[in-house]
Fold:
Amino acid sequence: MAGYFKDIWLGVSTVLIGMHITFKHWFKFKKAVTIQYPHEILEMNERTRAHLFNVADECAVCLQCARACPVDIIDMQGIRADKDEDLGLLPTGKPKRMHLIKFDIDFSKCVYCGLCVEVCDTKSLHWRAPVEPCTFTREEMYKSFATIPPDEVERLIAFDAERKVKKAEEMAAKKAAAAAAKAAKAAKAKAEAEAKPAEAGADAPKAAKSDVGEEKKETPAASDTPEKPGTPDSPDAPENTPKPEPDKS
Amino acid sequence: MTWLDLLIAVACVAGVLGFISVVALVAIWTERKISAHIHDRLGPMETGGFHGWAQTIADMVKLLQKEDIIPDAADKPLFKLAPYIVLSATIASFVVLPFGAHLIGTDLNIGIYYLVAISSLEVAGILMAGWASNNKWALFGGMRSASQMISFEIPIGLSLLIPIMIVGSLSMQDLVGAQAGGFWNWGVFSHLPFAMIAFIVYFWASLAEVNRTPFDLPEGESELVAGFHVEYSGMRFAMFFLAEFANMFLVAGVAVALFLGGWHAPFSFLEISAESNVILHNLVGFFWFASKGMVLLFIQQWLRWTLPRLRVDQLMHVCWKIFLPFSFVNVLIVSLWIVLTQS
Ligand code: SF4
Ligand code: SF4
Structure:
């Protein structure tokens, strides 16, 4: 019987305690935890995972991000700088060698997976506030991060095309020279073969040797030209050019 | 029955319907705000400008436009009928609630008896809804609702018996009239502390009667999804919702009428006598009745956001082992008191 009344007392008193607690919260008038979102917006950390942003000056145009993107929405294009052009250093400490003429992300297709940010070696591509990705039109979702002005881009493209033509010409010339050398070699060999049955003449080999020497001299000359000062329009050495990709993607 | 009688009856029901709609709109808004502030939140803030006061109206308009979905496997006639039964039982109970000296649908001489009887009809509606939905959660909810409402009718009836015995009448206006002249004459303070105990038992049991937390087992959002009205949508759901909030006010109104002085002011100088101005007298009476009812409504909401839900066995324990013996002992003592003092 005593237990019965004790239970009742416990029930009543705990209800009163609970009501006291909720009453205190009800009329405390302390600042509610709610944030009235569109009217007040929380201050976000600088690199909140919200929106992608690329710092054009720090981008190496290595294309890693474009390759990593699972939905292929990073539309970028770069143009190799001139040998003597100084584009400053990348955050990795290496010199920047490429002009970033186009870096567009269509955020309406982005899945915000962050793979592009992870692969970026220079950390030029990063997450950034603000958190609202909403826009009124689709066009606004299309963001461009390249900072080079349009006329400069045109100049760079023209320059690149010119350089290509030049290079192609040079390549053709080289090819022709190589072919000529080959032909000369073949001719020499033939002459030698012909000469062998006859007496061993000293003239024919001499002539062939001088031919080969000339051809050999030409090849290094072609690859050396860029290093020579005062020839700004000279093409690059073919060995260190990953050039087809920037134009393509 | 003349045409005039019919017109008066229709006007009466329309008035009740209008009143309970307004009460439900206000009560739902306050429920949201109270729950929010108890949780240190803000609740609705935008709709209507001032603290989201129009949020409930917007929700009602939305519910009106919603499609009325009836499940394929439901018992269609019963399914359609259930919300009407619940709502009409509620409206019918309001008819005997004394809002003022003359603001009462009809002052039946068995008013309170009628009210208890007619509000039991709601159980049928809720059970019907649970059964006809052909959904196990809905059926569980309906069954729980029926069992708890029927169980709690007994302590409610016994506690209502106390003021009835003290006044000696079943008519609502007689019950209110006996409490005139200041708050010390109110029902709760007569035959101290027995009427007080009756009032507390009534108030708690009425929470179970209207399926409020801590006795909201029939709805049990976390276990029964929404209980008996889980399959309802659109206007039919709105009817259940309206009935629920109207019932909250109904039980609060009965408590006010029988225990808290009805439409009388706490001090008699706050009233306007019927002789000087009948209309003003009724309006002031209405004000006191409605505000007392609202205070009890707030307490119901306050309790809802304080207490967790009881288990079914705990609920029955509270009813049969605590409320019932207390009410019986109460009735015995008060009747003994009355017999001894009257003779
Ligand atoms: S976040 Fe993912 S989807 Fe978006 S641009 Fe980067 S890699 Fe592509
Ligand atoms: S991975 Fe980084 S550095 Fe490389 S292209 Fe993309 S943004 Fe530029």
Observations:
- Chain B has twelve helices and no strands.
- Chain B touches chain A through 16 residues (CB under 8 Å).
- Residues A 54, 59-65, 119-122, 124-125 surround iron/sulfur cluster (ligand 2) (CB under 6 Å).
